[in-house]
Amino acid sequence: MLRTNQSIITEFILQGFPGSPQSQKYLFAPVLFMYLLTVVGNMLIIFIIVHDHRLHSPMYFFLGNFSFLEIWYVTTLSPKILANFLAKRRAICFSCCIAQAFSHFLLGATEFFLLAAMSLDRYTAICKPLHYGIIMSHRLCFKLAMGSWLGGFFTVIVQTIMLCQLPFCGPNLINHFYCDVTPLLSLACADTRLLEQIVLVGSALLLFSSFSFTAISYFFIISTILHIPSSSGRQKAFSTCAAHLTVVSIQYGTVMFMYVKPKANSSLEVNKVVAVLNTIITPLLNPFIYTLRNKDVKEALKRATNIKKYFTERHLPGVR
Questions:
Q1: 20 versus 73: which is more confidently predicted?
Q2: What PANTHER family does its record include (predicted)?
Q3: Residue 217 and residue 204: Cα distance in Å, rounded?
């Protein structure tokens, strides 16, 4: 698995999206618009969570972390994708490609740990409301957030080190619009079966363990909600979980399709289509999912847009 002196590849060429280079230039404007909207939307969520004291709760602490992660998640890919739309030669250096693959999978793995932490928060809020403030303390929330980032790091670091050790001696054309592991492994001049198995097992363990935790949490959440006597109480309880459950469904569905399947059944062209949903569309939808279905966030957004009232309430709380 060690790189040899015969490894002459110093850069890769990204094939990009299907179609001619000329036709791909027309994708620049919509992808740029979606990227900017994603960044601005998530930055706005972080801003109102930080500056509105009504949102200083565990639920919004995790949402702020999730929005911060989404900003970096799209930023690891979108600028290079946009540059390649206009470039005559879609080259990326070897170290840049490895760094992009590492960052992409680090943030992706961290995202699933954060989703599991958010499901624990919802379980505690609905199933143990009287002990919610004690259980979901600031210290525990900080530990869960840090644990999510560390968990993501340790999930991908071994795979990344092994990927760096592989010899690449040509060809250097990556059949994707970013440095994904599957097309990279197909270019290696060595037996990659061990690394493929590690990637498959690691992805499966991460996804199914976090998904199982989330599914069990929601089993008890739904069971508790169904025992709430009033219909308004049930509706309010469901509304607090709807946004998180929607994001969980989209994230797990796309990633399981892309990575947790045997190589023989994989299709790089199909993967590229699904990757667009996972890397561009889903991060764009998340801010809207959490704001449009969340009354507290919508009210905080209205207060934030009313500049005079916002600063009066924040700095002069005694003034009415």
A1: 73
A2: OLFACTORY RECEPTOR, OLFACTORY RECEPTOR 6X1
A3: 19
